[in-house]
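Batch 3, record 17
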Amino acid sequence: GAVVSQHPSWVICKSGTSVKIECRSLDFQATTMFWYRQFPKQSLMLMATSNEGSKATYEQGVEKDKFLINHASLTLSTLTVTSAHPEDSSFYICSAFAYSNQPQHFGDGTRLSIL
Amino acid sequence: KQEVTQIPAALSVPEGENLVLNCSFTDSAIYNLQWFRQDPGKGLTSLLLIQSSQREQTSGRLNASLDKSSGRSTLYIAASQPGDSATYLCAVTNQAGTALIFGKGTTLSVSS
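Prediction for the assembled complex:
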C-alpha cells in the first residue's frame, strides 16, 4: 500500500533555530502534499497545500515567511520552520495521495519542541 | 465553511462490546469521507474511505456508513478489543484533490 515517510520524528532545539521536516511518498508520485499541525488535545488543522513545481498555498493565519514549503519533486516536500519559538512547538504531519479518489496517507508526524 | 463534529469526545467500554462513533458535517456537498485511527504521539492510520456516492464501507470488524444528505457518518466497531484503544478521527474533503477537514476525534478506551 501507499506509504508516506516523514523525518525527523522528534526534534528538540533552542529558540531561534530553523528546523526542516521532510515528507516523502515512497511508492507513488504526489503532485500535491498537505501539511497539518496538531496542538495537544486538538484536531489536525491544515497549514498549507504543497504543489510540485509551484508555490505553496497557505491557510489564513499561517505565516508563509515563517513556514517555508518546498516541493521540488513528485516524491518530496519539505517544511522549514524558520527562527522557531516556543509557540511553534507542536505536532506537524504531512499527507499525500496518489489519486484524488483514493485515501490520503499520512506520515508518522514530527513532534517539534522549542526550548 | 465546512465543520466536522465528533460525538462523543471520549468513550470507555469493556472488551467485547459493540460500539458506534458518530461524525457530523455541516456542508453535505462532500467529495469523500475518511475515518482514521491515531495512537498517542503517532501519525494517522487510514481505516476506511467512503466516496460521496457510497453508503458504507467495511473492513474486518469496522463498518462505516455515510448519510450525505443528513451530513452524518458512523463508525461501527464490533467486538471491541483493548488494542482498539486509540483516538478515532473523521475527516471530509469538499472537492477532489483537496485537503481533509478533521473533527476533534473520539478517544476510545477498551478495558480487558
